[in-house]
Predict the structure.
Amino acid sequence: MHDLWFGAFLSPEAEGRERLLRHVTLADRLGLDLVGVQDHPYQEGFLDTWTLLSVVAARTERIRLVPDVVNVPLRPPAVLARAAASLDLLSGGRVELGLGAGAFWDAIAAMGGRRLSPGESIEALAEAVTVLRALWTPGAPVTFEGTHHRLRGAKPGPLPAHPIGIWIGAMKRRMLELTGRMGDGWLTSSFHSPPEAVARQAKVLDAAAEDAGRDPAGIRKVYNVGGVFSPLPGRGFLEGPAALWAEQLTELVFEVGMTGFVLAPGEDAERDLRAFAEEVAPAVREAVSKETARERGAPGEPAEAPVTLSSPAPAWADLDEDDRPRMPKRDPAALTPEQLRMGRHLVQVHNGYRQELRQVQDAVEQVAAGQGDAGALRSAINRLSVRQNHWTLGTFCATFNRLLTVHHTIEDESMFPAILERDSTLAPVIKKLEQEHEVIAEMLGELDAACVALLADPAAIEQVRAGVDRLVQVLSSHFAYEEEELVEPIARLGIRI
């Protein structure tokens, strides 16, 4: 389960900009975890979200910055990728990215945006997520041909300081299903979706995640909320004393899986932010901690066995290198420079994952040493406590696992069939590689389980270390075999990856 985050949802009104900045710095001093800012570029009375977040980053020290949510129809995703990564670097790894498919289409069209149908806007958002992740992944220039968004040799970078989470704002079924398939997080709001609706929406999201082979618990669920602090309980949601707020939010943690709450304060914003940060957040954290401890067993009672990767017959043992088919090699001198470039692209893709693996190894060792200084995570980890280091490592592992799984899925569903269509003699090699993908997928599942265990038990770092070491061994062998057997055919057959 993710750590609980509490934040402030602040309106970017231009006339109240000084008050807004005071509230931002107050939220940072109070120890809130994030500040969310809505993004309506067509709203003449609002400050531009990215300009505002840049100023917020400069005026704060630790609070995370979240556009809640970006209007994708008016923010080209390739440019957005650069903007988000830049702000993440400049803020020391404090950016998460909320995305929305768009609404208020008359206003969007007035700003020069394309008017899309609901189905088109969801399709465009899915493509935007693909573009963002491609440009945050080290490697060769990226080509992507979508219906709404395209990349034609765009170079990845700058790379963010930490794995930026993509949180999708969703209320209706198709958007919830997209979030379950592709999102790192889910943003919803009590102003449109009261708790009973959120519970139904979460079931749709979780089912979509499971259908996609993902763990629904890995998707952070964040609820924008509003209410009234008062001495006596009212009739509505979050109406009453701080203790009632804590009780209702704690119920959402256990019943819905919410792991983030972002308060839109009322007229007395400073009072509301203080009550939320100093009374509600600690009470919810304490209640969740006690209930979690009770479910795991009280002190003195036997606890659940920790996740372990050292089973009698681990999946990686099935990767039989001696049984790999080898095909006759052809003279590369007959290939054109363009063909050679196409073949080398596979190596470049693999090199990106090799670099990611080294970063994972570094992160493991730094967390084990209690230092938290690791490659691209350096600036983010330096600001975190030991427990937050464990969360960061877990997120980093999960991000790598997802990227590698996508890579293998692309190979299985696109590259391999294209190769076989043009040269069926490679079938034994392709079959072996597909079998190894299944073994690696099993290993990734075991490693992900160890990363989850690390959140609750720092001693699980040994399981994570063992899993990463095995993954390095297996992937190094797998990549080398794939390159040995497929680089030349990819070049010769003109296969574009």
